[in-house]
Structures are given as structure tokens and as C-alpha cells.
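Hey,
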Amino acid sequence: MTDDELKALVASLAVSQKHTDEQIKKTDEQMKKTDEKLERMGIYLGNVTRNQGDVAEEFFFNSLANEPRLGSIYFDDVTRNMQKHRHAVQEEYDLFLTNGDTIAIIEVKYKAHSNDLNKLDRKMGNFKLLFPIYKDYKLYGALASFYINDDTKKEALERGYFVLQRSGDLIHTECPISQIKAL
């Protein structure tokens, strides 16, 4: 290869490299814009999911406040959104029922999945570590959900958990009689 050919080759490589660098810069800018859009979308979708979870939690909390029982076990009270941190263990319990010698932990989901059962297993396992005052209490677990597929429901029951679902008369109407108008 002659000197002139070598110079031409180096010059063409420099032009190609410059073009490649410009393309990489454009791609990086596009990816940054896409990442920003996805982040905004993730926040939006996260809020939708959180809102649905709040709706389900409110429903089950109000239902249990009116009748605090799981099957034939009656409770004295229901607590919502209880968090506890002890040593390296930290958990949040959606709903928590108590009576004189029994505790029930309820994991609430808008739509339950089988991995929610693993989360409930973990929370059940950590409960007496986090709350040693309840070490002698009977402990029950439950999965409450607006929707649960048959396989997840079966698995929950096989693991010994209660399953809470919506059913029956769900409409509650309040209106002062004096303001009702018939047409």
C-alpha cells in the first residue's frame, strides 16, 4: 500500500468514524427521550396500580370493620396499613385482625397472583419476629382480592390461607328522604 493509499484510507476511516459518532449521539438522544417517556408512563401506571390497590384495601377494610370475622373466627378489631421494622426485617401488613388470642394477617390485592402467596408466606414468617408480644397467639393468613383465578385460589387454600372475595349485595345507598324526587 502506498503512502497516498494509506492517507486516503485513514481519511475515509475518519469520515466513517465521524458519521458513526453522529449516529450514536442521535441514538443516545432518542433513547434518553424514550427513557423519559417510559419513566413518566411507569409513574402513571404505578399510580393506577396503587389506586386500584387502595380501592380494594378500602373495600375489605370497611367490610371487616362491619363484620370482623374470617369463617367462624370472630375478631375484636381491624387495623389497616401497619408497618414494622425490627433489626434487618421490615414488613407492611395491609389488614390486621386481633382478638384475645388470635391474629389474622390479610394481604389485599386488586387482582391476586400466585406470587402474592409467596409474599404472604414471607409476611407470616416474619410476623412473630417483628411482634414478639404475639408469640403465643394463633396466627392465620388470608388473601383478599377483587379477582383471583381458580389456580391461585386453590393454591391459597392448600397453603392454609383464607380467601376473601367480593360477593353479594355491594350497593349501599345514602340519601336524605327529604331530597328524593320522583318524576
